[in-house]
Amino acid sequence: MNSPLRLGIAGLGTVGAGVIKIVQEQSALLAVRSGCDITISAISARSRSKDRGVDLSAYDWEDDPVALAKRDDVDVFVELMGGEDGPAKAACEAAISAGKHVVTANKAMLAHHGQAMALAAEAASVNLRFEAAVAGGIPVIKALTEGLAANHITRIMGVMNGTCNYILTRMENAGLPYAEVFEEANQLGYLEADPNLDVGGIDAAHKLVLLSAIAYGTQVDFASAELQGIGLISVDDILAAKDMGYRIKLLGLSSMTDAGLEQSMQPCLVPYNSPLGQLEGGTNMVVIEGDAVGQIVMRGAGAGEGPTASAVMGDVMDIARGISIPVFGQPAATLKQTKAAKSNTGSPYYIRLSLNDTTGVMAKVTTALADAGVSIDRMRQKGHQDNAAPVLIVTHEATPTAIDMALKAIEATGDLAKTPIALKIVEV
Ligand code: NAP
Ligand code: HSE
Hints:
The chain is of the alpha/beta class. It contains 14 helices and 16 strands. The protein folds into three domains: 2-104, Rossmann fold (3-Layer(aba) Sandwich); 145-301, Dihydrodipicolinate Reductase, domain 2; 349-425, Alpha-Beta Plaits, CATH 3.30.70. Strands 7, 8, 9, 10, 11, 12, 13, 14, 15 and 16 form a ten-stranded mixed sheet that branches. A hairpin with a 3-residue loop joins strand 11 and strand 12. The longest helix is centred in the N-terminal third of the chain and has 17 residues, at 107-123. The radius of gyration is 24 Å and the shape is elongated. Bound molecules: NADP nicotinamide-adenine-dinucleotide phosphate (NAP) and L-homoserine. Residues 10-16, 44-47, 50, 65, 80-82, 87, 105-106, 132-133, 136, 303-304, 308 line the site of NADP nicotinamide-adenine-dinucleotide phosphate.
């Protein structure tokens, strides 16, 4: 048996406590599978006195995560505090400078600083691992960097924010409005401290851009990802989609095209009976397409104590086994600077308009669509009590540019009672 691998854990919340439970309860399994004991030397969080539901008495305490990261008796610094900058980044950088391996679940930090941190880790010959940062318990980083390493990845799709998927499926199943389900998710503790990270699509986009970097050998590029949250989706949209055989999902799409790297995270309609359409509650799904392998579908818990701690420990055990893989699957210095592109591929669209119910309004809408070259496949005006007429339109294949042009022209009529929405229909 090799000498023990000693952890320093900063962050003792949902994920941190889960990691400590696995280390305490599965020590024999971890040792036999990784060839050494995995121990915890020291821990850090904001409050020393908080009850974490685990016995912490055997571990040294550090108030400062940077001090923890630099300790001589720490081989792997496990960062589970979160936050794009601040103590998480400072402590990870200190650990790398001190020659320690780093395991983190922090997608926000890596989406913004991944390239610089990967360069630093590789220059210091230490591992920087982040399986838990993307899709919780689903081993998608391992799949891309190892099992699928011989493929040219052609496309990644996925539902990678459990909170949004919970909100959308709960709205459908209970017929409850967005605001009510949002509040319910809040009470259940599902939402990030800044809820816009979830419902604004930012958290899911952080995950998507990390996958893109590995898949296409490009530097992490969050800034150019197209983002749209779920805040404007109504129960009527969800039910109309269902009526037509679709379900609305916050869908991540990334592909490398001749024009450049396309990355988007936005609500889309997907076929109701497709694997993505069938995804309920807080579950995540990642679909990867490679030239040799074809399509791979991975499904599982995207968050929570056990699944996320499972992913963290998978990384720790790889380090214990002496497995070393470049942070994004190839040396960071070889990752290409991305040329970002906005997808202008045609697809059918679902459009919901709320129109002032006056003579001639519909004629103006159809003219705006026709002028933009958008052809209507189906159209329905629903009954209404007030003066705002809900109109649902499904288009034939149209480009995002044409849809934008049509919506601008419709807005310019001054006949819209509410902000319109247009959602891509993706045949997956
Ligand atoms: P959490 O429950 O809020 O726990 C955060 C922990 O970090 C707390 O123990 C907190 O201390 C500590 N902390 C925060 N700021 C600190 C600071 N300045 N100095 C020292 N300690 C500090 O968060 P979590 O859900 O476990 O998430 C941790 C990381 O995992 C985040 O990057 C998150 O995005 C990622 N992640 C979480 C999940 C999930 O299901 N929860 C899934 C995937 C990835 P106190 O407890 O004393 O306040
Ligand atoms: N807020 C995230 C989600 C947590 O809902 O999926 C896991 O990253």
